[in-house]
């Protein structure tokens, strides 16, 4: 006689249990562009909704060509149901398209037709829909109003928010999903000046690499750093390349910081390649701490050397590794471009090589000879 009342109580309790409320899943997540950001304007998912200046506001570089797009990695399978895009009063941003994907390759529109922001208007676009599983959210910029801040190709957004709930932990995704459409490197005027006044003259080319396990064995003939140095020697036969490596398998950012301090006041190398982030991912280091130390290292090198500094994004880790370098890749790119430096994108280099990506690795944490050759040749291409 007590069975039915008990069942009713259980059913009532289940009905009354509140569902997990949607939260902004995008805040602080890594993102990738098919072009460049305007140096310092990186605030796409930083949680700041009301800024029209750097770093709280996001902006693409003033580059020609459309569409431009940014892909946000939510870092796991999520059930998303709403996206809010906050336009900036800085102008230019016009037609915006929203899409999501579970695998980073196959995208489905979240709104049809595309939305057109009015010119110079700091308004918000809210798109709500039935929950769907996604890991990646893509914001595509179709065109420009022109006449806004920074040049017609600078497209601005204050913020993008993606609301939903996280699903159960999922298998590690393709580490190249955000990189396949990115350029393998970012160059700038400093590289052109370096080529003219250093590489195209006679004498030594003093090249130093500062990094973690991604640079271990940099003096070996098949390593990407040594391959790049050798290729530069061929491209510029009047130069004698002198290679020095600092850090390596046990390298940490503290090693780079100590090296920078030790070389204050000493005649600096001509070229410094900075490659950190792989070990930070393996150790599960705090992203905020990594950013702080990485910024400090680049600032020290910029202030106390006369070298061209080339940051390199960390090596994507392959299964069966359970760690991801995606967040650290984003930090390296954002800090490098905000500092006005050229950049080598490791994931983009490897992602463009067709076939089984596991063949590019000797193991989950180190490249094979094929992978080394691809990265080394691209570093040389950046400087050619």
Mind explaining what this structure looks like?
This protein is α+β, with helices and mostly antiparallel strands. It is built from nine helices and 18 strands. Strand 12, helix 3 (224-235) and strand 13 form a beta-alpha-beta unit. The chain starts with a helix and ends with a helix. The model is unreliable at 1-17 (pLDDT under 50).
Counting structural domains, the number is 2
**Level-1 CATH class name of the largest domain:** Alpha Beta
Q: What string, H for helix and E for strand, traces the elements in order? A: HEEEEEEEEEEEHEHEHEHHEHEHEEH
**Helix segment count?**
9
Query: What coarse outline follows from CA principal-axis ratios?
Result: globular
- Ranges where pLDDT stays below 50 over 5 or more residues in a row are 1-17
CATH homologous superfamily placement of the largest domain: SGNH hydrolase
Structural class: alpha+beta
- Here the CATH topology of the largest domain equals Rossmann fold
- Gyration radius, rounded: 23 Å
Beta strand %: 25-35%
Q: Give the proportion of residues in helices.
A: 25-40%
Gross CATH architecture of the largest domain:
3-Layer(aba) Sandwich
> Main beta sheet, described?
10 strands, antiparallel
Question: Whole-Å distance between the termini?
Answer: 86 Å
- What is the residue-averaged pLDDT? 87
Tell how many strands the DSSP assignment holds: 18
């Amino acid at each position: 006689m007590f069975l039915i009342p008990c069942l009713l109580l259980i059913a009532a309790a289940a009905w009354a249990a509140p569902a997990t409320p949607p939260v902004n899943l995008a805040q602080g997540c890594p993102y990738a562009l098919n072009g460049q950001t305007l140096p310092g304007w990186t605030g796409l998912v930083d949680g700041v909704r009301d800024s029209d200046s750097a770093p709280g506001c996001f902006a693409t570089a003033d580059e020609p060509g459309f569409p431009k797009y940014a892909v946000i990695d939510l870092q796991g399978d999520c059930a998303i149901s709403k996206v809010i895009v906050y336009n900036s009063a800085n102008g230019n941003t016009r037609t915006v398209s929203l899409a999501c994907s579970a695998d980073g390759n196959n995208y489905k529109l979240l709104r049809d037709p595309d939305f057109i922001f009015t010119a110079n208007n700091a308004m918000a676009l809210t798109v709500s829909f039935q929950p769907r599983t996604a890991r990646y959210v893509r914001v595509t910029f179709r065109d420009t109003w022109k006449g806004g801040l920074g040049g017609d190709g600078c497209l601005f957004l204050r913020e993008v928010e993606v609301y939903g709930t996280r699903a159960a932990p999922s298998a590690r995704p393709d580490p190249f999903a955000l990189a396949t459409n990115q350029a393998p490197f970012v160059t700038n005027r400093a590289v052109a000046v370096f080529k003219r006044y250093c590489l195209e003259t006679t004498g030594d080319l003093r090249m130093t690499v500062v990094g973690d396990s991604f640079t271990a064995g940099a003096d070996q003939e098949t390593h990407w750093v040594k391959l790049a140095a050798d290729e530069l020697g061929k491209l510029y036969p009047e130069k004698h390349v002198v290679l020095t490596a600092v850090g390596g398998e046990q390298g940490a950012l503290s090693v780079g910081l100590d090296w920078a301090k030790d070389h204050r006041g000493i005649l600096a190398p001509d070229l410094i390649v900075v490659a950190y982030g792989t070990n930070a991912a393996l150790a599960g280091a705090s992203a905020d701490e990594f950013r702080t130390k990485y910024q400090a290292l680049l600032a020290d090198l910029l202030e106390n050397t006369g070298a061209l500094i080339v940051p390199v994004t960390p090596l994507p880790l392959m299964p069966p590794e359970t760690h991801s370098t995606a967040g650290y890749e984003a930090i390296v790119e954002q800090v490098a471009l905000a500092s006005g430096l050229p950049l080598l994108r490791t994931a983009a280099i490897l992602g463009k090589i067709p076939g089984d990506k596991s063949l590019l690795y000797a193991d989950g944490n180190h490249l094979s000879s094929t992978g080394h050759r691809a990265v080394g040749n691209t570093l040389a291409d950046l400087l050619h």
